[in-house]
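Readers of this paper often ask what the protein records in our data store actually look like. Nothing more is needed to write down the fold, since each code stands for a local backbone conformation. Below, we set out a record of this kind in full and without editing:
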Amino acid sequence: MAGALSAAMLLGTGAQAASAADQPEIQAQNVILLIPDGMGMDGTTLTRWYNGGKPLAMDEMASGLVRTYSADAAIADSAPAGTAFATGYKSHTGYVGVLPDRNTMPGLDPIANGDAKKPVANVLEAARLSGKSTGIVATSEIMHATPAAFSAHYPDRSNYDALSEQQVYADIDVVLGGGAKYFTPAGRKDGENLQQVIRDRGYDLVNDTAGMKKSGSDKLWGMFAETAMSYDMDRDPAKQPSLAEMTSKAIDVLDRSEDGFFLMVEGSKVDWAAHANDPIGIISDVNAFDKAVGEALEFAKKDGNTMVIAVTDHGNGGISIGDRATTGTYDKEPLATFTAPLLKAKLTGEGVESKLANPRTNSNIKQVMAQYYGINDLSNKEVEAIRRAEKGKLNSVIGPMISERAHIGWTSGGHTGGDVVLYSYAPDGRKLSGLLENTDIARAMASALGLNLSEVSKQLFVPAEEAFKAKGAQWKIDSADKANPVLVVTKGKDTLRLPVFKSTAELNGKSVQLKGNVIDNGVKLFVPQDAVDLLP
């Protein structure tokens, strides 16, 4: 039974984290994981009050808590946090889909010799190899840390060239999000036209809401912004679909598979708003995320064979309803103290920036802030702060201004290390429960789908030098095009060319499609087993 698979079977060698409480045996044909990046508990509560106290779609799914620390830090970066959800292994800050250099947090097993930065399989890869359709959706650039953790492997989340190229060759059925410029020759150091590659690989490539909705293709790639998509409150509905619309479309396409599907959905910019201490941005995108949860939950209830998990990867900002100014009055403050200033805002701080004159003038600033942010009492100091704000950073300036007026507190401009709420739903209304490790999320999804992540890692990530040496082959790196290196393996009359970060090989001049990508982790090269098997 899938639900009875042990942690060792699913994840490989010794468990990295404290074992989870016994969970119900869950089997499902489909799994939908939704991640509201950086969503703190008070942010969820504030959003609910902003909505007049109405329950959120995810409220009925609340079922437990999740620990968020990484391999060597009490407060996690999104890359290792996403990697934990995707692979079942904790990792190091900035590392995507690979093991850390070392485990130093209490209770974690040491990393085996030679395994530092080694790529490990994620749930999406395992689902794809089992015959299921797969998808990733995000409002950030699609190669941002969290979606990349489910679709790529590299120990540097900022290497967009490496991450995006892997995504294009990963054979994911549905990819929806931002980051269009990083798939063009002008936006890449390697000069590749990945948008053309996407088309060549059979995708319907769309760039607006109508195009997405109209598409009838079983392979769909949507790029709705040059970089990240807008906050939901700011977006143009004709140009950018909502997270709920993208989720609904992804489910529609993926559900055509008779073997089921895996879908990861990220509400990316909850995190960005929290970094900026911008409560309007948080409310905007928590609401957008919750509508996406509603779409997934509605499908799961009708389908009867779908598991849905919603959980953030970490807290951010230390947001609180109440600040130091309410220390002596907190229990006497009416709800309107906290919500009335927020309800006046029509845009997030990012959206307000586009309404300001360029160059910014004091008179325009006061007019715009009154009209779109509901603030009529700007001080001269605040006006000057807005005027001097760095381009693209205005929400970090005016977010704290409305926070002060609404008595919303903040402890940080960075991530926080507390436990986060787990929301779950499975066939027959079953839920995950208790205090879980973030790595347990991968375990639960793999178990429900009957996947063995350890075996998939062995299939996809074979150390190239050792494997080809054992075959009696010679190998070298062809760096004629330094931005696009190729592993060249020769044995007798056979020549095998393996471009790094791609799943296409060339054997004696003939193209071969591999089951996975060639991975360079900065230490050594890894190839899929079927690449090794091409040579006698």
Remarks:
- DSSP finds 20 helices and 22 strands in the chain.
